[in-house]
């Protein structure tokens, strides 16, 4: 097998792994949304500082997951460019 074909296979496999990770992160993000909604519904009107801190941490986690998804999508696009060379 030529070196070029091996590189293309490796790139394709990596892209599939990225797709798998994106899928898992999207599912996790959905779970964060559900938890965030439940926390907000259950603790609405609470004046406890930990309530807002919990909500802030969930929102931060959600943003970090979304950032990770974006970075993985960018990496996949870059790998696609490598395949085209």
Write structural notes for this entry.
The chain has helices at 3-43, 49-84. α1 runs antiparallel to α2 (49-84). The protein is built from 2 helices and no strands. The longest helix has 41 residues, at 3-43. It has one domain.
SSE blueprint:
Blueprint (H helix, E strand, L loop, with lengths): L2 H41 L5 H36 L1
Helix pairs in contact: 1-2
Major β-sheet annotation: none
Order of helices and strands: HH
Strand content: under 5%
Mean pLDDT: 93
- The helix-and-strand class reads mainly alpha
The count of DSSP E runs of length 2 or more, i.e. the number of strands, is: 0
Overall body shape: rod-shaped
Instruction: Domain count, please report it.
Output: 1
User: Radius of gyration from the CA trace?
Assistant: 19 Å
How far apart, in Å, are the first and last alpha carbons?
A: 18 Å
Number of helices: 2
Helix content: over 70%
Please mark out the parts with pLDDT under 50 across 5 or more consecutive residues, or reply none: none
